[in-house]
Design a protein that fits this description.
With 639 residues, this protein is α+β, with helices and mostly antiparallel strands. Helices cover 12% and strands 29% of the residues. A hairpin with a 5-residue loop joins strand 9 and strand 10.
Length: 639
């Protein structure tokens, strides 16, 4: 392990070694000028295996554009191809082809460069990490109930502060096009996953300087969880790596304590964020078939989602709940002769909730990726916390069998690809899964409710004991990217549903924020987003069609904070929906404390979090044809 507080060897596995070897080859190739000139051998590999998705990400693909790939490090690209979400592509390549395509795409710089950390190291007297304070959040959902709600005391911010903010400091990540994960604030320390830069860092909240930095074997793709790592163990941080391992660090020192693979399917990524409770780490497990199915020769599809519980002390798997049985041959082939398998899919994309009172884990699932359709897709599920036994399943949409070989919707003009052989066999082809995790709403008199937000634009309220529907509201018709995409939040009275609706014509779009009274199920207020392409914003390519709210919102005191895909930060009055403040994170000029050139971009995924009297914003998310960026912005009350 390599840290700036304690240097030691990295205990990487075989996949990390393969990625490192590719990066070593990358360095040699750069030294010999192999990555220069129009005849680079990697271009042919890229054109054959990558260009169809990455050259035109708007044309039915959710892949990052090639311009974003060129900003990534060799380490990130190599890991993605050898053990990450693009492993099905990497498996087709020879070692020489892998090295060639990485050197073709990666920038000509050393992956081991740490100047972005060294320039911002705290003076010795500021490097101490004090863990005596109560954490501002324990993970993506702020609390175990996944409410994304913070009191003024938790955040160190009041509603009136949020209406009058200024930039305190910024920190920019190198070789980064998108920021997926939020951090954890304990006292005056922010623990932050600099994913594509392959580090977890501890930053001083007052100045942004670095207390410690730990290099991870591969990028941490999700938000960090914070808690005690086993009985008598240290307070630690847990995240999910691109290679599929959980990684646990000592929060005080940054030392890696253990790495463990909780997956039943070694091709599945850890997209959702883990949660630590009572000696267990609850881990959502997603899938890679949905993208791999775009390849005509791919045997679609074999993977399925799951939720695992592992021992917080060492990462040993204690139980796993599976969304379905293992896939079997279907006795048929696609039009290219590739064997068909099923059932598959129902990945768990999001952070779960842990209901301590009931001893239950609530999780949500995605669509099936091949037939036969199961009852666990596009669903919210109740799982016994102790045993992993399923209590109940609520399915919001039946027969949603879909992968990226398919058109989005039965009325789409796009023809089905070879691995959408089931297109005329009953599937609704919507991709209207739950990308957002369930929320446990604590009602008065013990009348609790489970809330869920779906990419269809639906907000659901369920009975926690049975999964019975209490009410439903729908905002817009939904899209494959939301509708509700990454999360919802509650203030204890209302539930707040951000609607993305990218590229939906304005007269049919519900893009904006929608508040529903949880007790009655009636709409409390609605705010509709409007595009802004004036002045400097006219240079933002997506300003006219991607301006909705996709990132999970955050409630602080009496305000709701949310980021939009066009890089704007919004602060709403939680009771009325009145806009209290807005900030543009793209067109503003920044001088990051670590000296890395900065660019704001789309605010998506875990875009907003808070603690220590600061509001933090992840500006930049280059996937899905959105605006890339590499900037963490810390806002404080204006002085």
């Amino acid at each position: 392990m390599l840290t700036w507080s304690n240097r030691a060897r990295l205990g990487a596995g075989l996949a990390a070694a393969a990625a490192a070897a590719l990066c070593a080859g990358f360095a040699i190739a750069q030294a010999h000028g192999e990555a220069e000139g129009p005849q680079h051998p990697g271009k042919a590999v890229y054109d054959q295996y990558c260009a169809a998705c990455h050259n035109a990400p708007e044309a039915g693909s959710r892949a990052a554009p090639v311009a974003s790939l060129r900003k990534m490090s060799a380490q990130t690209l190599a890991t993605v191809l050898t053990s990450g979400v693009m492993k099905p592509i990497g498996d087709q390549l020879t070692r020489e082809q892998l090295r060639a395509v990485v050197t073709y795409l990666a920038p000509a710089e050393q992956a081991a460069d740490t100047g972005w950390i060294d320039r911002a190291m705290c003076p010795a007297e500021r490097r101490a990490v004090d863990l005596n304070a109560r954490p501002a959040q324990v993970g993506f959902g702020v609390d175990l109930d996944n409410t994304r709600r913070m009191s003024a005391a938790q955040a160190g911010l009041k509603t009136r502060d949020l209406a009058n903010l200024e930039v305190a400091w910024t920190f920019a990540m190198p070789r980064t096009t998108g920021l997926r994960g939020q951090g954890v604030v304990v006292g005056n320390t922010l623990f932050y996953p600099a994913g594509q830069a392959n580090h977890i860092v501890a930053l001083d909240t007052e100045t942004g300087c670095v207390k410690w930095a730990t290099r991870t074997p591969s990028q941490v793709r999700n938000s960090l969880a914070y808690g005690q790592l086993g009985k008598g163990g240290p307070m630690g941080l847990v995240g999910g790596e691109a290679e599929g391992d959980l990684i646990a660090l000592d929060a005080r020192t940054g030392k890696i304590l253990w790495r463990a693979d909780p997956r039943h399917d070694k091709t599945a990524p850890l997209s959702g964020s883990p949660l630590i409770h009572d000696g267990k780490v609850i881990v959502p497990i997603s899938g890679s078939d949905v993208a791999a199915a775009m390849r005509p020769a791919y045997e679609c599809c074999k993977g399925h989602g799951a939720v695992a519980a592992v021992d917080a002390a060492n990462g040993k798997v204690l139980w796993t709940w599976h969304t379905m049985e293992d896939a079997k041959p279907l006795g048929r082939a696609n039009s290219q002769g590739a064997a068909a398998y099923g059932p598959s899919g129902a990945p768990v994309w999001s952070s779960p909730a842990v209901d301590v009172k009931r001893g239950v884990v609530f999780a949500s699932t995605g669509e099936n990726t091949s037939p036969p359709a199961t009852k666990t897709s596009d669903a919210i599920v109740s799982i016994d916390l102790k045993s992993g036994r399923q209590n109940w399943v609520f399915q919001a949409l039946e027969n949603d069998v879909w992968n990226m070989s398919c058109p989005a919707g039965l009325d789409s003009a796009r023809p089905p690809g070879p691995n959408c052989y089931f297109a005329k066999e009953g599937s609704v082809l919507q991709d209207h899964d739950f990308g957002a995790g369930p929320v446990v709403f604590r009602g008065k008199g013990g009348k609790d409710v489970i809330l869920g937000g779906q990419k269809s634009g639906d907000v659901w309220a369920l009975d926690p004991a049975t999964g019975k529907v209490l009410w439903r509201q729908q905002f817009g018709k939904g899209t494959a990217l939301g509708g509700v995409h990454w999360g919802i939040a509650t203030d204890g009275v209302r539930v707040f549903a951000p609607i993305s609706d990218p590229s939906v014509p304005k007269d049919r779009s519900a893009a904006g924020m929608h508040a529903v009274d949880v007790k009655s199920g009636k709409v409390a207020w609605q705010w509709r987003a409007e595009p802004d392409c004036t002045g400097e914003r006219a240079k933002i390519a997506i300003c006219g069609n991607r301006y909705g709210l996709s990132a999970a919102p955050l409630v602080i005191d009496g305000a709701v904070v949310a980021g939009s895909l066009d890089g704007r930060l919004w602060v709403f009055d939680a009771a009325t929906g009145k806009v209290l403040a807005k900030h543009d994170t793209i067109v503003a000029a920044y001088k990051p404390v670590n000296g890395v050139p900065a660019q704001g971009g789309s605010i998506d995924a875990a875009g907003v979090f808070a603690g220590g009297g600061l509001l933090f914003v992840n500006s930049g998310y280059g996937s899905f044809g959105q605006a890339p960026g590499n900037l963490l912005v810390a806002y404080r009350p204006k002085r």
